Amino acid sequence: MRADLDNCYRPYVGLTGDIAQTLEALTPQLKRSKRPALSSSILQAIVAARNLLSQEAASRGGTPIHPLRIVHEMQPFLTTDLTLCLDMGSFHLWMARHLYSFRARQSLTTNGQQTLGVALPWGIAASLVRPADKIVLDEAHARHLLRTYCVYYNKTRTHLSLSKDAPDRREVHRPERRVMIVGLRILGGLHHRYERRAA
Q: CA torsion 119→121→125→128, rounded to 10°?
């Protein structure tokens, strides 16, 4: 399948056909007897920085616990059969910057575009996609999400068996002039509650 060319994407050569066969044909053509000196020096600098950071993190004790110490303690557990799901917050920045992961989609970190509470659904999805993996996420946050849903279920969600009311009876908002309906997000927009409010 040929690539779509445009002003920003103009490859010199396009390899079409079976990807596996193409890679098998190209692999013998790659001849590099040793790593270039520049690459070696860069990698050595990275290793030295990691070792220094690891020593610094191990030395941080006391309370409150410094995020680097938690990163240091988590690193040995980040094996190939573990998926880490992180929610939004300042702590996830420490994890994203300093926790080393070498498998694609092993450490799931929000980029700030998602709303609060992505770790729990990510953990559920990861357990479906990788059933043999150990899934690590914040239990306290999972409990918070479940409590929020319980409040929504009992106070807001309509039930046919209750004549479209909630178990904890809801206030009825009668139609009025110059009043608009406002949707309030629950669980980051997974559910909504609607109210009438003055325009």
A: 110
Edge-to-edge, what's the strand order for the sheet holding 82-86? 107-109, 82-86, 134-136
What is the length of the chain? 199
Backbone angles phi and psi of 192, in degrees to 5: -140, 150
Task: Judge whether 181 and 187 are in contact, CB under 8 Å.
Answer: no
- C-alpha 140, offset from chain centre: 17
- CATH class belonging to 61-137: alpha beta
Whole-angstrom distance, CA of residue 106 vs CA of residue 81:
9
What pLDDT, in 10s, does the model give residues 12-29?
777 778 889 988 988 888
Q: For residue 195, what are the β-bridge partners? A: 182
> Residue 84: beta bridge partners?
107, 136
Contact of 68 with 60, CB cutoff 8 Å = yes
Helix, strand or coil, per DSSP, at residue 139: helix
pLDDT bracket for residue 112 (50, 70, 90): low
Each domain of the chain, given as residue ranges in start order, spans 61-137, 143-198
Q: Quick check: pTM over 0.85?
A: no
3-state secondary structure of 56: helix
What's CA 188's distance to the chain center, in Å? 14
